[in-house]
Specification:
Length: about 350
């Protein structure tokens, strides 16, 4: 099969790799029908995630069709169309029993495209299948389902829920990439009074407004003073960091009001300064986290019922064998205007927006 392989910082290749095989009775093999690229993949290629070995197939978000099932799998069968979650779960360890699947101690967690070969390939082996893939309703397209593999549960759990967004809140989201835009959508499920987005790219500021933000600012705006003015001198109730660089995290801590909540979602590859000398007296809560995907069934039900949608988020579509072109476009999002890219196999192209 062909797959996108990480060859070290700054190096990748689309090349032949061995077909995956069942290694454990709880495994399934999935033919990849649709797949996407995550900002985390770009962090890996920059060398920000040293736990990824050279030679690893990248990717942790996909939709596909099961072609082979391990003897212990009970919930899905060959021929089922499934969502492949970015998180796998053994279901037995202490953290999985608490629904904290991202911290799985039994061989799961974020392993696809990280510790084992991932989804940016023609086929993929998925461990712990009964708890790590989700059978898709007929009315949910491959393209729509891709958003449930990572960005929607991540923005919902690590951003909106961790930040405790509540009715009437002022929510500031720093970063209008796919996660930031998804955070707009999931925050608005809780009826905040306003959602304000900060991003350096004018095209992404516009995308934020198109996806429901009330206001969008750039780094040249005096955003700290402006947000305080808009909130009667207080600041934001919730600030969601959706980039993963020191400056954006520090900006979140500057726009937050006393007793506010900062929810860090971005993947950081460098230290950020935490100004405890300013924050300790303000009773500010700061959360971090890896998505657990415990809310994926809920989000899938909402998607199937037409209660959750992000039209326009996928801006570029490719065939699976155009993986290198898709990476080039996605990695230059500031120039290309790419938000989210989707790649489809020849066997199952799904170009529904």
């Amino acid at each position: 099969m062909k797959a996108l392989v990480y060859n070290g910082p700054g190096q990748r290749s689309w090349r032949e790799m061995p077909d995956p095989v069942i290694q454990d009775p709880e495994d399934v093999i999935v033919r990849v029908d649709a797949v996407t690229i995550c900002g985390t993949d770009l962090h890996i290629l920059k060398g920000d995630v040293p736990t990824v070995d050279h030679g690893r197939i990248l990717g942790h978000e996909a939709v596909g069709t099961i072609t082979e099932v391990g003897d212990s799998v009970r919930g899905v069968t060959s021929g089922d169309r499934v969502l492949i979650s970015c998180i796998t779960s053994c279901g037995r360890c202490e953290y999985c029993r608490q629904g904290r699947y991202g911290q799985c101690l039994g061989g799961g967690g974020w392993i696809l495209g990280h510790l084992i070969d991932g989804t940016q390939a023609e086929q993929v082996r998925v461990p712990f299948a009964d708890r790590s893939v989700y059978k898709l309703p007929d009315n949910v397209s491959n393209e729509s389902a891709l958003l449930l593999a990572d960005i929607l549960p991540t923005s919902y759990e690590v951003g909106t829920l961790a930040g405790q967004v509540s009715p009437g809140d002022t929510v500031v989201i720093v970063g209008a990439g796919p996660i930031g835009l998804a955070a707009i959508t999931t925050s608005k499920l809780f009826s905040p009074s306003s959602v304000i987005v900060i991003d350096s790219a004018p095209a992404r500021q516009k995308a934020a407004l198109d996806h429901g933000a009330d206001l969008a600012f750039g780094p040249d705006d005096d955003v700290v003073a402006t947000i305080k003015e808009l909130t009667g001198g207080f600041g934001a109730d919730v600030a969601i960091e959706a980039v993963g660089v020191p400056a954006t995290f520090e900006l979140c801590t500057q726009v937050i009001r006393p007793c506010g909540r900062v929810a860090n979602v971005g993947v950081h590859g460098a230290p950020a300064t935490l100004h405890l000398e300013e924050l300790w007296i303000k009773d500010v809560t700061i959360t971090t986290g890896l998505v657990d995907t415990s809310t994926t069934p809920r989000l899938l039900s909402m998607l199937a019922a037409g209660r959750l949608a992000m039209p326009g988020l996928i801006t570029h579509r490719y065939g699976l064998d155009e993986m290198q072109d898709a990476y080039d476009v996605f990695s230059r999002a500031g120039e290309t205007g790419a938000l989210k890219v989707a790649l489809f196999s020849d066997e199952s192209k799904d170009l529904e927006a």
